[in-house]
Amino acid sequence: MKLLAISTTTHDAAQSTSVAMLQAVLSLFAEMGSSEIRTVNADQLHIVKNLSCYANGKKDCANPASGPYRCWAHQGSVEDPEKYGGVDQMPVIYDGLAWADMVLWGTSVRWGSHSALLQKIIERMDTLENRAASWGERNPLRGKVAGVVVGGLHWKTGSVADHLVEVFGLLGFTVPPGGRLAWQRSQDMNFEHPDPDRPYVERWLQTDNGRGALRSFVLTLLAARRRT
Asked: At the N or C end, where does the chain have fewer CB atoms within 10 A?
């Protein structure tokens, strides 16, 4: 199995709860004999914003004329890097998605939602879903299993994970019930960080509760992969 993990937090990876959770998940997959694992830190990529090509006309998005990645945002950055702040690096993710059998998405929680970086990536994935929706082709994401990993301080971490399960399902991934792992430090909305959060999630991952949640998440995704 080819497993791709994409971190979309903008927090320092060494301090990030979602990164700690992704690392624990990948370690368990490796113990269970996953054939090949790749990781992407999306925060290190220059990703051009969505150009709302879909809204400009049904067949503007994923138009074959828009370059090898079927994306006007990428093609425009190749033709005029200065206009887009540099050449778009979303192909790192496009290529990874094409390679992978299973994709893990990791995000922090920002004001009751996922990271702005993840939202940008989701919007840029429109070109994949649109190949089926508008061009009658096969969706390149069809048959790929996705799992969601979310870490946060105190606000709606589970709800963010549930929302992402729905979104990735709509994009074309297979996201099984239970295909999400969520953790938050406190239920108190008035609680603020007196110290870093990562040590707390690392301790939780060593508890019976944490180990059980981790194992259940991984086994759920593996079972879904066997069924696809």
From this structure: C
